[in-house]
Amino acid sequence: MNNNRPKILLGRFALDGHDKGIITVIDACKNAGMEIVYIHFSNPEEVVKSAIEEDVDVIGITSSLGQHMLVSSVLMQELSHNKVNIPVIMGGVIPTIDVPKLMDIGIKKVFGPGSTPKEAVSFISQIAQKEEP
Amino acid sequence: MDEQVKNLRQEWEREIRETYEKKLKFTLPEYHNESGIPLNYVYDPENIADTPSEMPGQYPYTRGIRALGYQYMPWMIQMLHGYGTSEETRHRTDFLLKEGMRGFKEEQPVILIEVDPPTTVGFDPDDPRAFGAVGLGGPSVSTLEDLDNLLKGHDLSKTRFAPNTRFSCLPMLAMYIVYAEQRGYKPNELNGQSQNDPLSRWITTDIGAPTPSTQFKLRMELIKYCCQNMPRWNHTNLCGYLYGETCASPAQELGIVMAEAIETIEAGIKAGLNPDEFVSRFSSQLHIGMNFFEEIAKIRAWRRIWAKTMKERFHCQNPRSLQYRMHVHTGGSSLTMEQPLNNIVRATLHTLASILGGVQSLHTCSYDEAIGLPSEDAVRTAIRVNQVLLHETDIPYVSDPLGGSYYIEWLTSKVEEEANQVINQIESRGGFSKCIEDGWLRHLLENQMLKWRQEIDSEEKVMVGLNKFRAEEEMEVPPFVVKAKETAEIAVDRVKRWKANRDNAKVKRALDDVKEAMKKYDSIKKAGILMPTLLEAARAKCTLGEMMGAIYEVTGGRVYASEYGRR
User: Fold this and answer.
1) CATH number corresponding to A2-127
2) ipTM, 2 decimals?
3) CB-CB under 8 Å, A114 with B466
4) Among A95, A104, B168, B329, which residue has the fewest nearby CB atoms (within 10 Å)?
5) Is there a domain that residue B512 lies in?
6) Is the dihedral of CA B189, B234, B544, B328 positive or negative?
């Protein structure tokens, strides 16, 4: 039962003061029965370490400072160094012209301004479906 | 007269009943404003029978703090700006000054600088924790050289300088004083402001910062220093903006900030100051959102509550202590990425509400702010909004043009009532700091944010272009991009060179003195012992990160608001 509950790591860059979006996403995920691990990170390495330790199904990163390209590229490199294949999604103030670039490096989906927490939850449920025990 | 008012009112009510409800079968809507105040469909003289007569420039200053408003002194156009390197930011400053950014007078430059996130918490660009954030949202300012890049050529006695730092305000001020000293200016000649409102920034942004009690001590140290040395400097910018952006209602914004001001003034008294010595040097930053009349009423109620509190509670004698000066930053959270030109309309309404409320200063948001930092084109338009209102319309000709409006006067009193309830609630819970430390305030704001989200999702609240009236094809506005990697490299190189070209033994001694003073600063009563060591440290060429580092080292490091009072 509990094993089927998707576990999501949500990370916010420690110096990014925009947390309104992530607060609403955390709330929506919890209401949908997901388990949330929420961290502040200074470097994407910390996200990968925490994702492995917590054995999460999905990683979600919020970025509204304009460092989404840098954070995501380092994060994807770290994941591949560690040979882990956890889907990554992003949200925040991310210009639409950067979305294809983010998809190119392997980000599964970008929820920019105008997206709703509901859309994020429904996407997470799709990609986090666990095998029946 | 009263009988006549009553008769007319009854006639109007009959019309509503007979025509709208019975004949047209119209179901009357129920309106509540953001502060939860139920609204009538119309107001009449009865609603303001208890409102005492008042003129602008007269206590309690509901109608304005001066007898003449914009006729004598147009509002300041102060655009918060900054990105990339200090040189790039200087380029933007020069552009904005050319386009019309100014103080009360044309010849008074105002330089309201946003700094990058590492600077706000006190990390130098070469600190690993600054990874990926150097030069984003503002330049890195960690040395006197950075300050010189931002300010060289300006007469500092005529320039209003306001660095928008969050938690590192005290060492930033020390650096600015030493920078000015090296250019031949004394502290009492300097004009500008420190944010010095760390607790508000801490709970609304959830960025790791010094412990709340350390933040409070740094804040009081700055206030005391300015009182004694910098009569032209606004020591504290009371920031309601962040509460507005985190979905506090207008009355909540006003109530929370007042509760904070009350606690700060009480602490100032404990630190040995007379309120009249420092109350007049509070400045402010309000949030103005889409609720046009409610925001105007908030501005008017704010001045009234401030004046009454300072007179009745703190027994201030100096009229300036009773006159609350206001700067508005228009609400960024009202803006949408979709159909970005609509944002010009929104920002114009915010600006108009601010002016009809009689504020002293404005930052009007740019239409591309939901996408990123403003482009030159977008920020020029934001300045033009102000210039059109000031120069093309009749709006500045009459002070408090809405004064006497049944609705506005009634609403002003209602917002005042609601805000007073918020103040009482916070005080009965032990005061502002207590409400922060036990997580109550953060919890309140989180609930407000979730409520906002729910209202948007259910379309109970309409945002044009976002949840209604969406366009088939979105107009793309090119985002303004900061070259993050190159910017960081320049900033890191620069600070490394700075650290290599100084007497590092002297630096160490200066930082030891800062730590020593911070350790001894165990009660607000001792305010005044830290700033002298920071000034010496700045003279010894210590960086902002080193000075804040010394403070963090002896005060328990950095803590997050979201981890306080978690239930």
Assistant:
1) 3.40.50.280
2) 0.91
3) yes
4) A104
5) yes
6) negative
